[in-house]
Amino acid sequence: DSAIPTEGKELLDRKKIYQQDGEITWSTKCDFLLSVIGFAVDLANVWRFPYLCFKNGGGAFLIPYTLMVLLAGIPLFYMELSLGQYYKKGAITTWGYICPLFKGIGYCVVLIAFYTDFFYNVIISWALHFFFASFAKELPWTSCSYDYNSLACYTPSWNDQGSECIERLNSSQGISASEEYFYKYFLRLHYSGASNSSVARSLTNLGSINWQMAICLLIVYIICYFSLWKGIKMSGKVVWFTAIFPYVVLFILLIRGITLPGAERGIKYYIQPNLEKLREPSVWQDAATQVFFSLGPGFGVLMAYASYNPFYNNVYFDALLTSTVNCATSFLSGFVIFSVLGYMSCRSGIPINEVAQEGPGLVFVVYPEALATMPGASAWSIIFFLMLVTLGLDSSFGGSEAIITALSDEFAIIRRNREWFVAILFSFYMVIGILMCTEGGMLVMEWLIVYGASWGLIIAVLIEAIVISFFYGIKRFAMDIKEMLGFEPGWYWRICWTVAGPLFLFGTIVSSFMGYAPLKYQDYVYPYAANFLGLMFTFSAVSAIPIVAVYKFYNAKGNFKAVNFRFYIDPEPDSLRHR
């Protein structure tokens, strides 16, 4: 005990009191690491990063991506983990400790996680449906013989002549069987009944509920509930499967993919650098967006998970390990995806740039179509879609736990009734999710994806960096880290927190605003009112920051003298450890 600083002993004494009041910690460090990795490594690592590399100059895209990771992504990732571990609380209470005037940051990140969960679990339900469908004797996305298929449906022609690639086949102008299955049968965006009539949906005409999707969504929420209702003691065990299994499947698919004919063609398209692309601002914007949405600062998850760590845990090592694993997984996923796309191009004669699709289409249309051509197609589909389900569940656990922990730490009634609160939260999610289980549900989902967390997340992280650097004080923050780890962060970290990170974030926000265009999904143009409400929805989370600040001043005792202002800027006295 003599090696522990005096302040540390005082904190350990306080921690014993906290534990007597019911505070819990991770059963093992691996529970924490797997939970963080599982949260950070999500569906976007598999479908978004590989496509962004392909779209933005192949290997050249790694230049802005790596810069963003090193100068902003990992430093801010490290910052949030450190704050959570130091203050031992969720986002709302922690930001109230750090700077009472900016306690609204905590409410902001909770709202961002809340909005994201509206649609994220629906995507998991898609993967769950495809997982169940993979047990069919014939994979349903391989045939044009179903009632929902149109006259334009076709099954791709494949070259079965050994390992030789063919240069070009006359591609049909129709729609592939896998595309019709996903968009017409499952999403039903332009389909109603069995008469092959195309019914265009809109936000005011969502159509009927797809009960297959709704049931899958209900199953997802049941899994989430029983994984989270008892806290990290339960979820920390579930992630041993949901976080590790995807890596087993990724390596299996990688080995299978690189042995397929034409794999080298796809890998070349994936990593071959086109340095001319670096002149386009959109490339840098895509890199910044991918980094922050993938690593996950700004959702409150990292703070929530780190708050259950022992005070002297080496959070520096944890931050480097988990963020590196996340970025490496993104890069690895590119080889998994594009080796198979090269195989498809080789066997069909269709150029890769016509085969590849962005977003859900890549993993729900293109990749299943390729797996269906392999021996044991059903088995490949089963493990692939189970991998997607587990990737999604980990991230869903994180987003929900951020909300639960933040509100439980702030409000005793929620802490005492966690099981009921989790049930109410997921029931509300289910009601909102039903809107996205309709024939026009994809229109609602696209609106939520674009306006739910995009700008709000980056603005929130920017304000976090500014508050830590210039209100809380980078020196004070460095002393906090020294108190936990025994050493202060070097100049690299301080420069990233105070200069590089905020500059990259500010540049991303400016370029996003300059490139803003009214929302459109396929051939549906969203009405003006939908875009206006979307912008209001975006800033509703960010508005929590000034609203809470005004509330603090309004309820202040006395007049607005400098001493009062100073009181709301400085950390709460109860939270100071190193003075």
TrEMBL record:
Disulfide bonds join C144-C153. The keyword Membrane applies. One of its GO terms (molecular function) is dopamine:sodium symporter activity. GO terms for biological process: amino acid transport; dopamine uptake involved in synaptic transmission; norepinephrine transport. It is found in: Cell membrane. GO terms for cellular component: axon; neuronal cell body membrane; presynaptic membrane. Signal peptide: none annotated. It is a multi-pass membrane protein. Na(+) binds at G38, A40, V41, N45, S294, N326, L391, D394, S395. The chain crosses the membrane at residues 62-83, 104-132, 209-226, 238-258, 287-308, 320-344, 377-399, 420-442, 448-474, 495-516, 528-551. Its main location: membrane. Pfam families: SNF. Keywords: Cell membrane, Disulfide bond, Glycoprotein, Membrane, Metal-binding, Neurotransmitter transport, Sodium, Symport, Transmembrane, Transmembrane helix, Transport. InterPro entries: Na/ntran_symport, SNS_sf. SUPFAM superfamilies: SNF-like. Belongs to the sodium:neurotransmitter symporter (SNF) (TC 2.A.22) family. This is Transporter.
